[in-house]
Here is the input.
Amino acid sequence: MKHKSALYWLIGIILAAVAIAAAFYFDNTVRDFMTRHRGQRPSALIASRAKKLSVTADQAAKVHALILAREQKKNELRQQYKGQDKTAWKDQLKQSHDQFIHGMKATLTPEQFEKLEQQKRQRRLTFHFMRETSRFGDWPAHFALGLFLAGIAWWRGSKKWTRIFLSMLIALGIAGVVGRGIQMATGRARPSVRTEEVWNGARFNPKYQAFPSGHVGASTAFFGVLFLANRRIGLACLSIPILIGFSRIYLGAHYLSDVVCAAVLGFLCALLTARLFLREIENRQSDSNSRGLSACRFSRPVQSTALPPLPKSIGLHMPLSREKSSLIPEDHTFFQLEQSQPRSFSSRSISDL
Here is the structure.
């Protein structure tokens, strides 16, 4: 048994190491892909999806000129109002945007512009969905959910599920504390931060606390305990940390390696918590299973103890002495208590007494 568990641990360590190495290798590729998809504006959509919109070369050149004019105007406004609030040049920025939209309508056909607006709405819906998923995927929402479920289990009198939900909260806290310490110690810049150095040492600024992802680590630890306690329910809930991790990458808050390392950290915290607080439940389940198996193997077949039928309108009378009973006819059998075998009955006829 020890050799088998050691083999499982070795396989798990190898798989985790391969996943982490692959995540670090594809960090920049995934970041660039998400940046292009997330940062596409109407002008960039035309440049990247010209075939779908059936844009001609003349239209593409005019759109490119509109893009350059808009970016130049935006840079001029930034330099002019440098250090000031965005509200100071909000009106001028809106005016530049309206000019850009008017130029796009004049350049494209109504069908092309409608397709462009449809793609823009789809991108906006995706962005809002990912933002809300990331917002509700933080540890306060998980803590409130675990506390609510633990209260329901305690109210229903289920000690097993109360212990499981409290263990989920403990794993959530351990993953959050350990993850926060690693974030402050490494100081990795988020993908949205423009900096030359990715790893910047100890930092207390949230913009330099990308490694590992706190959302994914807490969620994986929370639902990892549930997976170890109940495989069917936990396996269905593991899709939640995966969705949260994808949303963090999509929003530019974390690299792929941040999410993968956070998932490994969260699952280790779940294993530790389950080892400390859920062992009693496992022991009880194994004892009950072994007892049930032994009872099925060594139990004797149950003998039939059916009573003989009585005549109609006559009640059952069980005399404890050898005196004849007037309630049972002489030709009917009844059960008499034997002195040699207490509490055992044998069938005899009244005529035998």
